[in-house]
């Protein structure tokens, strides 16, 4: 019993998560809610090769190629069950993907897309919090829903797309 007593008195006090403040108490209430991850976008220099990798090598369900002239891209979606990958390829010389691929010759992660329940309320509140939005108004994105992009310098180096759920 002497050893047990020494172990019990020598044991450090451990704070459990339940006894500390819950995470939700630190989050201010918003007029809009952040939803699920919709997709991760990858810029690719060769769209057909990328489609083939996901479809033929990895066995994923891959959509047809869709041109989005307003965004200057071709898009292809790869279904992953709980989310999607969006393969992006330049459409026209002024495509933002062209400049991305000039810096990243083999392609790479371009942005993440998160759903929101009220894109207009999100825009208003994010502007108040000094988060730069890359357009004055939402544009219609690849899923036919309004989207906005948040400046990567305000989002820890990540280009964030918000899509109306």
TrEMBL record:
EC number(s) on file: 5.1.99.1
Stored Pfam families: Glyoxalase_4 (PF13669)
Catalytic activity: (R)-methylmalonyl-CoA = (S)-methylmalonyl-CoA
Listed GO CC annotations: mitochondrion
VOC domain residues: 36-165
Coiled-coil ranges per UniProt: none
Domain of life: Eukaryota
SUPFAM superfamilies: Glyoxalase/Bleomycin resistance protein/Dihydroxybiphenyl dioxygenase
One GO biological process term: L-methylmalonyl-CoA metabolic process
Function as written in the Swiss-Prot or TrEMBL entry: Methylmalonyl-CoA epimerase involved in propionyl-CoA metabolism.
Family as reported in the entry's similarity comment: Belongs to the methylmalonyl-CoA epimerase family.
NCBIfam families in the cross-refs: metmalonyl_epim
Name this polypeptide is given: Methylmalonyl-CoA epimerase, mitochondrial
Species this chain originates from: Sapayoa aenigma (broad-billed sapayoa)
Lineage: Eukaryota, Metazoa, Chordata, Craniata, Vertebrata
């Amino acid at each position: 019993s002497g050893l047990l007593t020494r172990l019990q008195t020598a044991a450090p006090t451990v704070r459990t998560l339940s006894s500390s403040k819950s995470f939700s108490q630190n989050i201010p209430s918003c007029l809009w809610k952040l939803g699920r991850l919709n997709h991760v976008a990858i810029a690719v220099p060769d769209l057909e090769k990328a489609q083939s990798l996901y479809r033929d090598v990895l066995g994923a369900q891959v959509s047809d190629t869709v041109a989005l002239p307003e965004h200057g891209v071709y898009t292809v979606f790869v279904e992953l069950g709980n989310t999607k990958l969006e393969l992006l390829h330049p459409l026209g010389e002024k495509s933002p993907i062209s400049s991305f691929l000039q810096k990243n010759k083999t392609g790479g992660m371009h942005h993440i897309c998160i759903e929101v329940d009220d894109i207009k309320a999100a825009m208003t509140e994010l502007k108040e919090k000094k988060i730069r939005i890359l357009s004055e108004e939402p544009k219609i994105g690849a899923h036919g829903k309004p989207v906005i992009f948040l400046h990567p310098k305000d989002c820890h180096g990540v280009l964030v797309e918000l899509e109306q759920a």
